[in-house]
Amino acid sequence: MTTAPLTFHRGRKKRADELPRQAKPEWLKVRAPGSENYHRLKGLMRTLGLHTVCEEANCPNIGECWHHGTATFMILGDTCTRSCGYCNVLHGTPKPADQDEPVKVASAIQSMDLEYVVVTSVDRDDLADCGASHFARTIAETRARVPRCRIEVLIPDFKGDEASLRTVLDARPDILNHNIETVPRLYRMARPGGRYARALELLDRARTYAPAVPTKSGLMVGLGEEWDEVVATLHDLRAAGCQIVTIGQYLRPSLANLPMTRYYSPGEFAELKRLGLELGFGHVESGPLVRSSYHAHEQSQSLVDSR
User: Fold this and answer.
1) Does residue 2 or residue 29 have the better pLDDT?
2) Regarding beta strands 244-249 and 283-286, do their DSSP bridges make them parallel or antiparallel, or are they unpaired?
3) What's the structural domain count of the chain?
4) What is the separation of C-alpha 184 from the centre of its chain, rounded to a whole number of angstroms?
5) 40-56 in b/e burial notation, b at 16+ Cβ within 10 A?
6) Cβ atoms of residues 198 and 157 within 8 Å
7) What is the rounded distance in angstroms from the CA atom of residue 109 to the CA atom of residue 144?
């Protein structure tokens, strides 16, 4: 059983989820989605029976991204075999993988005439290859229909299986992303099914096996980490060869999820970006509303321009 972080209040220990709710600062307030393009994209997803992490994770940027015709496709269903404390995606026993899904996703990308897409998934520890072949097929089907489209994959850790990682890399995505999510001290609480060292190992293996495919990772703040721990994690990511990093504010999806300990200011995010660039990342996307796929196309282009 995990417990919330402890803080001191009037001489006694008090759990962070007992603290008064903090008012959301102005820089985190976004307009409710509702543009014509947003509704068109939502209708297309429902017609094809597809899932997006934008919806499943209650992403605050869904209105902006869908208005501009970009989305992060979530393959392998909507039920995760793990139960991370920060995540709002349904967890439990998943249904069998839809073997037509790679074609459906590729068809949606073709219908939308997209030039850049992100494909991610729930964890599927129940599958022999943890879903790696599904990623590879989705890349292949998309390439066949929209050759010019650039493809970023945001993959799970495949339980550390190197063969599964190679299956995805052999399909030649343009960017391979695996989120570190948080600092090592908080892994047991926030990501009990994951391992900090395993996440770094995945990024290092990807860099070694397919050096032409840039690697990317994401970190959220506000779970109770210390500033020095965030900086140390950035150092670890660079040591593993990670070239793009995203840093954003953790926002508690529901009362069933881990409490948010504090809001980072825009100035603090700017300082983390400065430190990241100083460490040698090709691109750092750091801000309160930043998520792993936010401005993904611009992140990729910025990396190309920095070389």
Assistant:
1) 29
2) parallel
3) 1
4) 17
5) ebbeebeeeebbbbbbb
6) yes
7) 11
Domain presence at residue 289 = yes
Q: How many CB atoms lie within 10 A of CB 89?
A: 20
Contacts from 14-17 at CB under 8 Å and sequence distance 24+?
16/224, 16/259, 16/261, 17/258, 17/259
Share of the chain above pLDDT 90, in %: 63
**10 occurs within a structural domain:** no
Instruction: State the Rg of the chain over Cα.
Output: 19
Strand partners, 221: 249
Residue 184 is given by DSSP the state: G
Q: What is the DSSP letter of 151?
A: E
The answer to whether 229 and 268 have CB atoms below 8 angstroms apart is no
Range of the structural domain that residue 50 is part of: 33-306
The more confident residue out of 154 and 2 is: 154
Q: What is the pLDDT of residues 197-242, one digit of tens each?
A: 999 999 999 999 999 999 999 999 999 999 999 999 999 999 999 9
Sign for the CA dihedral angle at 29, 34, 38, 43 comes to positive
The pTM for the full model equals 0.82
Q: Considering the chain, what percentage of its residues have pLDDT values greater than 70?
A: 74
Q: Residue 194, Cβ neighbours under 10 Å: how many?
A: 22
Name the DSSP class of 74: E
